[in-house]
Amino acid sequence: MPADIWTLPAPSRVFVDSVNMRHILRWRPPQAACNTTVLFSVQFQGEFELLVKNGTWMDVFDCQQIPFAHCDLSFEVGSDSDYDLQVRAQCGSEVSNWTKLGSPFNRRNTQLTVPEMKVKTAGDTLQVLMEEFPLSASIKLTVWRKDEQQVSPIPSFFHYDIFIICPFFITVRAHIFLFQKVEYSLTPEQPMLHIEGLHEGKVYCVRAQLMLYSGVRSSSTRPHCVLVTGPEIAAWRTPTTVTVTLIIMLGLLFAVFWSVIHCRPGSCKNFLKKKSLPDSLNVKVIPMVEQAHNEEFWEPKPQVLNSDSV
Prior knowledge:
mainly beta, Immunoglobulin-like, five-stranded antiparallel β-sheet, Type-II_Cytokine-TF_Rcpt, Cytokine receptor family member B16, cytokine receptor activity, transmembrane
């Protein structure tokens, strides 16, 4: 069509803002008076549309006649091929010409940022939680003990068990842990890592890196180091136990002293009244009298006389 048909100026400064596999097409609205809101529509053309569909341009479903100067193309840009993009403006019945992106866009050129992560300890367990990251990426975690960071890379005896106890995180139980750096891999389906059986009183460090399946990597995070405190004991348990025990002891002492001071003889006698024994236990004791034997028992003994005495 002749250029003079397009009475509305076209959008300008079209570019793609792509970070962590989220691709946002942005542009500058036309500088023209419009009695209504200026609306925008976006189209794309990938390798499939170019070769198989004979150069067909496809409408971006969520970006047709929108009042915003940006469009999320993360779903449409679904492969590592090149994509051509274009946008046009509309004011009432007036429609502008299409403004194409200066050069084809490829998602492999996305800018990868340092992933967000949370590291904490619970007893002898190290917990690492990764924040949102692309579905087409994974996280490489490097874990080591801080005082052993400079140990030579000679392999040492190291044994650990891995348990996938939940579809959202991985648990690792270490038996002799980290004489060298150990790497783990997290996915969007399993963004959490638990490492159990760590040494009490030691400092462990974690570093993360975002990796695309195409091989593109982000820079690594700074080491995030935490102290392992050992078996988890609730911080409130010890002072609470001491306080409750002290209150109970003071209450008992107060009750004893109050009873001693305020207890009258008659009242105390009633409280301390001796109960009589039941008949079954009330048995009379008959003393046994032993007769004295004062008389000596005399038994005659035979005597033998010799011949001289006769």
